[in-house]
Automatic annotation (TrEMBL), chain A:
Protein species of origin: Streptomyces nanshensis
Phospholipid/glycerol acyltransferase domain location: 138-257
Residues that span the membrane, as ranges: none
Lineage, highest ranks first: Bacteria, Bacillati, Actinomycetota, Actinomycetes, Kitasatosporales
Region (Disordered) location: 1-73
Gly residues: compositionally biased ranges: 33-45
Name of this chain's protein: Glycerol acyltransferase
From TrEMBL, chain B:
Annotated InterPro entries: Epimerase_deHydtase, Lipid_A_modif_metabolic_enz, NAD(P)-bd_dom_sf
Cited Pfam families: Epimerase (PF01370)
Domain NAD-dependent epimerase/dehydratase stretches: 5-239
Protein name: NAD-dependent dehydratase
Length: 351, 360
């Protein structure tokens, strides 16, 4: 355990995350096309047997595909696969889970839409993704910033594209997300659900990777002057949920999201009128209209830390407020500390 | 000595089916069906007693027949389609006053040992602040303000009161998700029968269904002596496995959707009602906005009931009976296949067929 804690900080591997990520993503896509279903969807929705079968089939498929690509029909193959996807979509023959998560749509459409933002715009560098367990549940606890919750989405892409076991991150989102039309439908399909202990416990019980930002709107809507200062972590309900489920907690620090919309002011009256927790005023928004809503192209780093085990505690520890506060503080400190380290290491906001 | 089962609401299709089914139970001696109007369907060997459960004379029916099991199915969302149809207020009266009278009669009848009440999962409401999956103990964040859901909440309240006053009676409350099937006539079934489905723009609710055969079967399980290792007293969510999104249902039924703005739906309800002849109640709008999914662990583990049909199979059975819509999925699939045959060279079709076979 102690050895695994060493994280290669100073190593000059700026391209590391991106390169391996792209390769892995290619591999995913290859598997996805060949297997006919989305990458990793078998692992998430079907049973082990199904996943095995699919892997086997994917193996078969690679051979035949290799033949056909030798014949020079790669775009036809892509078109055929896209049509097969279209066919399943128009006939409704796909599965969603109880939370409305649509693995196929997420893999093939939603992630592909976010990927350019992730790879080209924010040039996200991912570190320590192997700290997320390859199987079983885990709770990823992250800082939250950026006025709009893009950091959560980028985290989801990071786990999706870079995790060796191809795991899916199920994010817990604020109730506002589920009140807004269109946003709520997309969030459910992408596997997000309401941040409440019932949903978190249900997802952890299924062995999912659950992502939570305990700072909530306090972190998301904090002024630019308080960037990288972690806000209070709610009441630490996430720790007791993880403890009850026996799921390890993976602290996660996101650097770069703070500067995408430097929030210099907050139009509180307008926010109250619209029913939002805050209404951001940035140097460009709302002055430049929609153009002002374009985020600044900052360079991001997402660092997943060493998992904190929660299974060694005696029965009933989840109801012990002192223990909960201590654990919450420990996690908060870890994230804050990692943020400072990453900031020191950062050459510039934009590169 | 066999059991005597009294069933309310037998003029409805589901009530009639349950009456016919429960007669075949070996330990059931007699089945008494009660409703205001004579059922048009056959009740088999059951005795039909025309009685209004809103009137106190229901007590004499219980006493006369020595009833020991009461299955209360006269809790409905819509007025009956039979003659003597009532308005919403009369439905509410049957639901709430009827339940009160029936429970009062049960309380005075010492022979009653078992009570089964049909309720609905709409008691959970359904709002953005609610957890994604409800279990039996989840309190509703925003209580339904009216309509059938509110009736069901009140009915359940009276049933809980009755359970306190008569602890010797085993009381089962079954909260059904939407019952669909060849013969069931519910607001949702009427909605799915529309040629074009109006939906709420920007929302894609999650839905769960119960096949009517499963509904009848679970009522039977709840009305009999519990098998060893199971317990039938309590509250149970009843739903088929799996979840479907409304958009998915529409595609599988082959019915195009028309997304509409939420305020427009609220204002245009009367218009829709006159055009589509369906009841677009605030409750249904709420369902079509937020949807509702329940956990059925209690049903499996405590009640010991496994539904035969999943949510998807229930919808498929429903679609078979109702016939294809304007955009049958088979036609769409054929169109896509034809396109695929044009685009891709013949050898490419093979893996695709294999894949479709695997999916189906």
């Amino acid at each position: 355990m102690a050895d695994a804690k060493v994280i290669p900080f100073g190593s000059p591997d700026d391209g590391y995350g991106r390169h391996s990520g792209r390769e892995r993503h290619e591999r995913h896509r290859q598997q996805g096309w060949d297997g006919g279903t989305g990458p990793g969807s078998g692992g998430a929705s079907a049973g082990d047997a199904g996943a095995d079968e699919r892997t086997g089939r994917a193996g078969e498929g690679t051979e035949t595909d290799a033949d056909s690509s030798a014949a020079g029909g790669s775009w036809e193959r892509t078109a055929a696969q896209a049509l097969a996807f279209l066919r399943r979509r128009v006939t409704g023959e796909y599965e969603v889970d109880d939370f409305g998560y649509d693995p196929e749509l997420t893999d093939q459409v939603l992630m592909s839409l976010l990927r350019p933002l992730y790879e080209k715009y924010f040039r996200v560098e991912v570190r320590g993704v192997e700290n997320i367990p390859a199987d079983g549940s885990a709770l990823i606890v992250s800082n939250h910033s950026g006025t709009l919750p893009l950091d959560g989405l980028m985290m989801q892409v990071a786990v999706h594209d870079h995790h060796p076991a191809g795991r899916h991150l199920r994010l817990l989102a604020a109730d506002l997300v589920f009140m807004l039309p269109v946003v709520n439908a997309l969030a459910r399909k992408a596997g997000h659900t309401l941040a409440c202990s019932e949903d978190a416990a249900a997802l952890l019980a299924r062995g999912e990777i659950v992502g939570v930002m305990p700072e909530g709107f306090k972190g998301l809507g904090k002024p630019f002057s308080e960037r990288y200062k972690l806000q209070r972590f709610g009441r630490g309900g996430f720790v007791s949920t993880a403890l009850r489920a026996g799921a390890p907690i993976v602290p996660c620090s996101v650097v770069g999201a703070e500067e995408i919309y430097p929030m210099v002011g907050n139009a509180k009256t307008l926010a109250r009128l619209l029913g939002f927790p805050y209404f951001p005023v940035t140097p460009t928004f709302p002055w430049l209209g929609p153009l002002g809503a374009v985020p600044l192209p900052t360079k991001w780093t997402i660092q997943f830390g060493e998992p904190i085990p929660t299974d060694g505690y005696p029965e009933g520890s989840a109801e012990d407020p002192m223990l909960m506060f201590n654990l919450t503080d420990q996690i908060r400190e870890t994230i804050q500390h990692t943020l400072y380290k990453l900031l020191v290491r950062r050459r510039s906001v934009f590169f | 000595m066999g059991r005597v089962v009294l069933v309310t609401g037998v003029a409805r299709q589901l009530g009639g089916r349950f009456v016919r089914r429960v007669q075949r139970e070996p330990d059931v001696d007699r089945v008494v069906g009660v409703d205001v109007v004579e059922p048009v369907h056959d009740l088999g060997g059951a005795e039909f007693v025309p009685a209004d459960i809103r009137q106190p004379d229901i007590a004499s029916v219980l006493a006369r027949h020595g009833v020991d099991t009461v299955v209360h199915m006269d809790v409905h969302g819509t007025p009956p389609t039979l003659p003597g149809t009532g308005s919403r207020s009369s439905v509410k009266e049957v639901n709430v006053i009827g339940t009160m009278q029936l429970l009062g009669a049960c309380q005075k009848a010492p022979s009653v040992r078992r009570l089964v009440v049909k309720s609905t999962t709409s008691v959970y409401g359904g709002a953005p602040r609610d957890p994604a999956v409800f279990d039996e103990s989840t309190p509703a964040k925003s209580l339904p303000s009216g309509g059938f859901a509110k009736d069901a909440i009140e009915v359940e309240g009276y049933v809980r009161g009755f359970a306190r006053r008569r602890p010797d009676v085993s009381v089962t409350v079954l909260r059904f998700a939407h019952v669909l099937g060849p013969s069931v006539d519910s607001p949702l079934a009427a909605y799915f029968a529309l040629p074009v489905l109006p939906t709420v723009l920007g929302y894609d609710p999650r839905l769960q269904f119960v096949h009517e055969e499963d509904a009848v079967e679970v009522l039977r399980v709840a009305a009999r002596e519990p098998r060893s290792g199971t317990l039938s007293a309590g509250t149970f969510n009843i739903a088929g496995d799996g979840t479907l999104l409304l958009s998915q249902c529409a595609r599988r039924l082959g019915r195009p959707t028309v997304p509409m703005l939420l305020p427009a739906i609220r204002w245009g309800r009367s218009l829709l009602q006159s055009v589509g002849a369906t009841d677009f109640s605030p409750e249904q709008v709420r369902l079509l906005t937020h949807g509702r999914v329940v956990r059925t662990t209690q049903m499996r583990e405590v009640l010991g009931f496994e539904p035969r049909f999943t949510t998807g199979e229930t919808l498929a059975a429903f679609a078979r009976v109702r016939g294809p819509g304007l955009l049958p999925p088979e036609t769409l699939a054929r169109t896509v296949d034809r396109l695929a045959a044009k685009v891709a060279p013949p050898p490419e079709e093979e893996p695709q067929d294999e894949e479709v076979g695997r999916r189906g």
